Each structure stands twice: as C-alpha cells, then as structure tokens.
Amino acid sequence: MKKMTKRSVATIFFIALSVLALGAISWRELEQPGNTSAVLPGLEMQKVVAGDYNLTILIPSSLGRKYHSKQASIKRPFYISRHEITIDQWNKCVADGGCAKQAKQRRYQTGNHPVTLVSWYDAYSFTHWLSDVSGDAYRLPTEEEWAYAAFTGNDVTKDTIEDLIQNRKMAQTATFSKFRKTRTVGANGQNSWSITDMKGPVWEWTLTCWFSSDEENKRKWTIAELSDPDLCSNRVVQGEERAHVPFFVDKVYSGGCGTGSPVDHIGFRVVRETGTLERFL
User: Fold this and answer.
1) What pLDDT band is residue 24 in, cutting at 50, 70 and 90?
2) Most buried among 51, 155, 182, 254, by the most CB within 10 A?
3) What is the secondary structure of 129-164 as a DSSP string?
4) Is the dihedral of CA 172, 178, 181, 184 positive or negative?
5) Is residue 24 assigned to a domain?
6) DSSP codes of every residue in 72-137
7) pLDDT digits over 135-159, tens only?
8) Would residue 244 count as lying in a domain?
9) Is residue 10 part of a domain?
10) Across 49-91, where does the E strand assignment appear?
11) pLDDT score of 62
C-alpha cells in the first residue's frame, strides 16, 4: 500500500472540514422544498430575487396625507405565492385542524375566490399550519417584501400611491359603491414577475407592525421579532392603499381602524424563505 503524500493528507483534511461545515447547517435548509402543491392544491410560489429600492408610505396626519420615504433592502431571495390564499385552501387548513373557523363565503363566491374576512392572527395561524404540514418555513410577507414584489423591484413613490388611490376611487364611482366584489384569483391581472392580484379590492395582511411611536415605526425589526403575535396590536395591510389595522379585526368597513379610507376586504398571501442552496440557484 502506497504511503499517503502530504497533499493527500491535506485533501482529506479539507474534505473532512467541509463535511463538518455542512453539518453545521440544518438539512432542512439544504434540501429542496417539499411538494407543497400536494399538501395545498393550487399553491404556486414565485421566486423573488434580492435587491434595494425606495419605499414611500402614507402616514396618517390631521393636516392631510403625509408621506415618508425610506430605503428598503431585500437581502435574501424569497418565494411569494402568486395568488392570494383561496377559500378552498383556507378550508383545507380548517379540515386539518390548523385553522379555527370555516371561511366566510358570500353567495357569489366560489372556492377559487381569495379568502377574506380573516384577522391577522387567522392568517398567522395558517402559515404555521402550512409550515408544519409541508416541512418548509412559511410566513406572512413584511411590508417591504410585499411592496417589492408588487411593484417588481421598482421604487414606490408618492405618485405611485396617489395613482392607486385615484384608481380605487374611480372604481368605486363606476360601481356607485365603496363595496366591490372580489374576483377569482388571477382575474385582476399579473405583474411582470407573474404575481397576480396585487391591485384589486382585496387588501393583504403583512408581518409589519404599526406603532404609535415614530421611533418604533422606524426601527428595523427582525423577522423573528415581527413573528411574535404579542409584539404589537396593529399590523399593516397593503393594497390599493396602506392602512394599519388591529390584528384581531377581519374587516375594516364594519368598525376597524385604518389610516386610509375603509377597505373592502382583507385577505393574505404567503412567503416561503429560501433554503441555503436555493439562494444560489
């Protein structure tokens, strides 16, 4: 048997170190995501790459509309559901014991309409159930992630927001009502990243908190902190306008508190974090 050279020993040592380093990373992070469509039929996830953009948000003011702009940074790629979670998908969570109550379905709606009339805690519970049954890490998007995906990485400006508000008012004027019917998922069109219904009557819960203190609102909260239901009593919803809503409220037009005009419906979509290898694919 030939003697091992110094180079061979060094090679074996390097391989051993590599194996140990990989062992420090959980296998769940390395493996490909589970077949979530088998667990939740119709769920399609769209990958969103990392990037930076400028986010302008509407802030309540007694003097009228007040805007605040900030630099937002999406440091890691993530997946976001192409469609809002549907009534049928919600009821699957209920049937499996992960969600507390059957979806409220209006007479004109089908199972392929987005689920609405859900509180932030309802949506939060759904993401925990989906994580448990799929083996992957699902959660609600932060406000920064939602806006980044909605506007395909472009800056969100004051003009962007004013246009959304004007379009909503025009839609309400055309129907002679502030209440607008929801449509089946995908019916409101998709953006250039193939993400649907970012514009439409359904507003969506985010993970982001709203505080009464400007200092707390401007602080950079971590995903782990925002995922704590006890962190704040108001969560941000995004859609044709931005609002903050008590986390237990499911519909603003019947008594909830928002920063903008009352919204028609509140639903949600989900985010899945990328595993270690997926970030480079």
Assistant:
1) very low
2) 182
3) HHHHHHSS-EEPPPHHHHHHHHTTT--B-HHHHHHH
4) positive
5) no
6) EEE-S-EEEESSPPBHHHHHHHHHTTSSSSPPP--TT--TTSBP-S--HHHHHHHHHHHHHHHSS-
7) 999 999 999 999 999 999 999 888 8
8) yes
9) no
10) 51-59, 66-74, 78-81
11) 62
Residue 15 in any domain: the answer is no
Residue 33: pLDDT band with limits 50, 70, 90: low
Which DSSP state fits 213?
Answer: -
Task: Give the confidence band of 17 by pLDDT, cuts at 50, 70, 90.
Answer: very low
Collapsing DSSP to helix, strand or coil, 202 comes out as: strand
Mean pLDDT on 267-280: 81
**What is the identity of the amino acid at 147?**
A
How many domains does one find in the chain? Answer: 1
CATH of the domain at 214: 3.90.1580.10
In whole angstroms, give the CA distance from residue 164 to residue 273.
29
Whole-angstrom CA distances from 119 to 112, 192, 240 are 19, 30, 19
The amino acid at residue 239 is G
